[in-house]
Amino acid sequence: MKIYEELISRGLIAQVTDEKEIRELVNDGNATFYIGFDPTADSLHVGHFVALCLMKRLQMAGNKPVVLLGGGTGYIGDPSGRTDLRSMMTPETIQHNCDCFKNQIEKFIELDEDKAIMVNNIDWLLDLNYVELLREVGSHFSINNMLRAECYKQRMEKGLSFLELNYMIMQSFDFYHLFINHGCNMQFGGDDQWSNMLGGRELIRRKLGKNSYAMTNTLLMNSEGSKMGKTAKGAVWLDPNKTSPFEFYQYWRNINDADVLKCIRMLTFLPLDQINEMSKWEGSQLNEAKEILAFELTKLVHSEEKAKDAKSSSHSLFITGTDDSNMPSTEISKNQLVHGVINVIELMVECKLTTSKSEARRVIQQGGLSINDIKVDSVDLCISSLALEKGIKIRKGKKKYHKAFMI
């Protein structure tokens, strides 16, 4: 099976501009394609998985990825799928986040001038002359068409700023720049990016003519696998310092039954024949499928050794209740104690089991917290320094475990 047909079989493609041409380009290894990553945080998360895996698959088939870091568009912020204005980041934060993204993406994509390149749109967007941009680029965009775009609909309800309105123009200019300077003939993106991507293709047509337009194509990725990660309570990061390999493994191990085969098909590199056989599994076999999914993705992000450790720890913890060596943990210092104790709500926030005290209070009131396998029934419970010196095991819900200790 050729790569384009494999992408279809895995459910990775939602929509394309010219299927015949795209099929020929990617199957012959002649696609130079870009996917953009705006540095909105200091780590990629599971919502980026479809894009990363798609890039890797296409590179393995001989196509050339152009990894675009949005250091320039990060100054504006993508309004797609949002009801509020993104927080403005400082230039230092944007650069730091770009550096973090680069380190993580290098684990997926082999960066080599002939095989893949990484670029940052800050290198061309920040040097643009405003009046020249209005004349040479802005004149090719219809405000009426822009406001009908899906990426602006939610923001229109609360008020779309002129700043955000420019995002489509900037992203469109990215494709134009990459086409001119790097021979980029294809762009990939999620469903909330379709209007922006078509804007880039249309800009090339208007600026360079129909012949150039015919040389470009747009592919819309099926974002279903990414959305499974985005809808999780709390972000699941690819940075092991933000989400440990054990937590990462557990996230995928506990995915819904209805989603496990979809994720295996879209996100792992297991052969389709093997996955097709697994699609017949049901009942308790789905737990085995979840373990396979968790192991394969943890191996992909963190290494095979870390995946083996996470799997072993998960089995030991949830089956025998013994090994907690890889359980996420937090050290509590003495100066965090008041009169030799720490309130359980303070402890939950400190361990990042909840993002706020009010959330911690709700978890306890709903019976969702245990310490050393004893359910916590009071928000006034305090943990002593003696208990912390021995180490305590905290369980939030059924599956989220954490250790707290004091040396």
Automatic annotation (TrEMBL):
EC number in record: 6.1.1.1
CDD domains, A to Z: S4, TyrRS_core
Binding-site residues for L-tyrosine, renumbered to this chain: 34, 167, 171
This protein's UniProt keywords: Aminoacyl-tRNA synthetase, ATP-binding, Cytoplasm, Ligase, Nucleotide-binding, Protein biosynthesis, RNA-binding
Subcellular location(s) per record: Cytoplasm
Pfam families, per database record: SYY_C-terminal (PF22421), tRNA-synt_1b (PF00579)
UniProt motif 'KMSKS' region: location: 227-231
Domain Tyrosine--tRNA ligase SYY-like C-terminal: 325-402
Domain of life assignment: Bacteria
InterPro entries xrefs: aa-tRNA-synth_I_CS (IPR001412), aa-tRNA-synth_Ic (IPR002305), Rossmann-like_a/b/a_fold (IPR014729), S4_RNA-bd_sf (IPR036986), SYY-like_C (IPR054608), Tyr-tRNA-ligase (IPR002307), Tyr-tRNA-ligase_bac-type (IPR024088), Tyr-tRNA-ligase_bac_1 (IPR024107)
Single annotated GO MF: tyrosine-tRNA ligase activity
Record has Transport as a keyword: no
SUPFAM superfamilies in UniProt: Alpha-L RNA-binding motif, Nucleotidylyl transferase
UniProt-listed Gene3D superfamilies: HUPs, RNA-binding S4 domain, Tyrosyl-Transfer RNA Synthetase
Main localization of the protein described in the UniProt heading: cytoplasm
Residues that bind ATP: 230
Chain location of the short sequence motif 'HIGH' region per the record: 39-48
One Gene Ontology biological process: tyrosyl-tRNA aminoacylation
Any GO CC annotation of this UniProt entry: cytosol
Catalytic activity line of the entry: tRNA(Tyr) + L-tyrosine + ATP = L-tyrosyl-tRNA(Tyr) + AMP + diphosphate + H(+)
Function comment: Catalyzes the attachment of tyrosine to tRNA(Tyr) in a two-step reaction: tyrosine is first activated by ATP to form Tyr-AMP and then transferred to the acceptor end of tRNA(Tyr).
Subunit structure: Homodimer.
Family from the record: Belongs to the class-I aminoacyl-tRNA synthetase family. TyrS type 1 subfamily.
Stored NCBIfam families: tyrS (TIGR00234)
Name of the protein in question: Tyrosine--tRNA ligase
Organism: Alkalibaculum sporogenes
